[in-house]
Design brief:
six-stranded mixed beta sheet; single chain; elongated; five-stranded mixed beta sheet; 15 strands; alpha/beta
């Protein structure tokens, strides 16, 4: 049997479509799971080599279910990311008219992406969340709901028809997906990489978040995502999920992570991996004083000073 990849199912999800864009997916057994949690748990228990799940969309930001699963539990590592343009179709059973639709369903992350369309075209329809968009289509097939927002490609799989297509509130909406596996050495830097970490403050004090962000800012590291998530230990107690430009093998990133480990209660490294939005080597130019060569030159200068050779 080939090694397996778990993904948020059932068959016909945007997650499956994005997963199949990875060349290695053709050599893996792709197994749908009913939730993000169960897909990631399959990796933790050894049932799957890796899991492929949504983590962010360009309309609402981070997918909190995925972020929370990566924050808690046995550590996992992100190895790849994929960006997929998203547009929805309204899938119904054959013969259903717009006036017949009283209930609609989809994954919770879909609602912010179709909210305005729903208000304009189905203002009285009752929304209910599903485990995934494809699962919503399955529930419509079973007669549980009248319509589902899902990919048009899911219609044939569930015996439905697209009543409307090309539905989106925001032009060029995208969802970001990540391939997650058990911890191992990150792949070599490509020159266009991203590093993800979770940070816990040591204590709550004025300027605490500034102190964390300062470890990146003073080294010229741009942040691509900053999202707070409750720790479950009381109101106002948060950790911070961060995506930053660069690779852990870069001197500036290694020093930033060293500083964060020193001042934070806890730091969870989620991985350094190639960015999907730009080609290798296509990252923005570094600020003066932040290249590996400049970090090495500064370190050598300190060593010479210590030796009395300044």
């Amino acid at each position: 049997m080939p090694a397996s990849y778990a993904y948020l199912g059932p068959e016909g999800t945007f997650t499956e479509v994005a997963l199949r864009t990875l060349p290695e997916a053709a050599t893996r057994q792709l197994i749908p799971y009913v939730s993000v949690q169960s897909a990631l748990d399959a990796v933790r228990t050894g049932e799957a080599e890796a899991a492929f799940v949504p983590i962010e969309n360009s309309v609402e930001g981070g997918i909190t279910t995925t972020l929370d699963e990566l924050v808690a539990g046995e550590p996992l590592t992100i190895y790849r990311e994929v960006l997929l343009s998203i547009t929805f179709a309204l899938l119904v059973r054959p013969g259903t008219k717009v006036t017949d639709i009283k209930t609609v369903t989809a994954h919770p992350a879909a609602q912010p992406q179709v909210r305005n369309w729903l208000r304009a075209h189905l203002p009285d329809a009752l929304w209910e969340s599903a485990a995934s968009n494809a699962d919503g289509a399955r529930l419509v097939q079973e007669g549980r709901y009248d319509a589902a927002f899902a990919g048009e490609f899911a219609a044939a799989r569930y015996g439905l028809v697209p009543l409307e297509t090309g539905i989106h509130d925001a032009e060029n909406a995208q969802t970001r997906f990540v391939l997650v596996g058990r911890p191992a050495r990150p792949a070599a830097p490509t020159g266009a990489d991203k590093t993800s970490v979770v940070l816990w403050q040591r204590d709550d004090h004025p300027g605490a978040l500034r102190d964390l962000l300062g470890e990146f800012a003073t080294r010229g590291i741009n942040l691509m995502l900053l999202q707070s998530r409750p720790t479950g230990q009381g109101i106002g107690n948060y950790c911070f999920c961060v995506d930053a430009e660069g690779h852990i093998s870069d001197r500036r990133m290694a020093e930033a992570l060293t500083g964060l480990k020193r001042i934070c209660l806890q730091v969870r490294f989620l991985g350094s991996y190639p960015r999907a939005d730009i080609a290798p080597g296509g990252a923005r130019p570094m600020l003066p004083g932040t290249s590996d060569q400049e970090f090495l030159a500064a370190s050598d200068w300190v060593t010479r000073c210590q030796d009395g050779r300044f």
